[in-house]
Amino acid sequence: MRVVWTCRTDVGVKRSVNEDHFRASLDALLFLVADGMGGHAGGELASRMAVESIENFVIETRAGTSTPLPFAPQPGLTPESNRLHVAARKANRDIYETAQGNPPLHGMGSTLVGLLLHEHEVHVMHVGDSRCYRLRGDKLLPLTKDHSVVNELIDDGKLARDAAYRHAERNIITRALGVDPDVEPEVAAHELRIGDLFLLCSDGLTDLTSDRKLFELLEPLVDAPGVNLGREGIERDHLDKVAEAMVRYANSRGGDDNITVMLVKVIG
């Protein structure tokens, strides 16, 4: 499988510290974005621990180490989805135990969104309100649903999805890594096709950007059949420019939070 990717992370206009972290491993075909919370020291540490713990767990378990799994696999999930599910629960425990042992860090936590590509599937995992979208052809589809108060309003029919990014309670999440002793990550497997483009991002982007505007920003990456596909340099240059444009747009709208934009494209 051939993949190109890029990432841009920015402190934003109103923050002094960037509490977002990201990881990308082409060997493991693993891509992660985390958004920390709990004050400068706590949030930055929690998000860094989240991506490091999950990356290490995925790489080690794929290498066939004999270390027992810290949690039982979930029935109904594929092996790779279970790998992400267990990895997230382990990261949650790592962050929680670190905070419990250090009073100034009590309450620290992190959202997390991740992709694990394997054969003909993409496995998407998230906790909190960091998101994953898939652009296939000219269709942009959200592959995650925020664990948030606002999303509960959407599910109850009390709020339109396209109005959520303006809602006063858009930052109140109902699930995060490290806040409680255990957490339930949401994981799903989807068919993977050559040409699929994935956007992983923190809420510093989506709190200020409607889905309609996201598609407008991503539209330069919509491929005509056969054009440029598989040419890594051209593809990466296009991804870089779009990621930079997304960060600029969020900052132009106020830049209220840290902004992380990761783009991952399957080219062969």
Condensed summary:
The protein has about 270 residues and is of the alpha+beta class. It has helices at about 40-60, 80-100, 150-155, 205, 210-220, 230-250; strands at about 5-10, 20-25, 30-35, 110-120, 120-125, 130-135, 140, 185-190, 195-200, 260-265.
Description:
The chain has a single domain (3-266), classed as PPM-type phosphatase domain (Phosphatase 2c, domain 1), CATH 3.60.40.10. The protein has six helices and ten strands; from the N terminus they run βββααββββαββαααβ. The N and C termini lie close together (6 Å). The chain is globular, with a radius of gyration of 18 Å. By secondary structure, it is α+β, with helices and mostly antiparallel strands. 32% of the residues lie in helices and 25% in strands. Strand 4 and strand 5 form a beta hairpin.
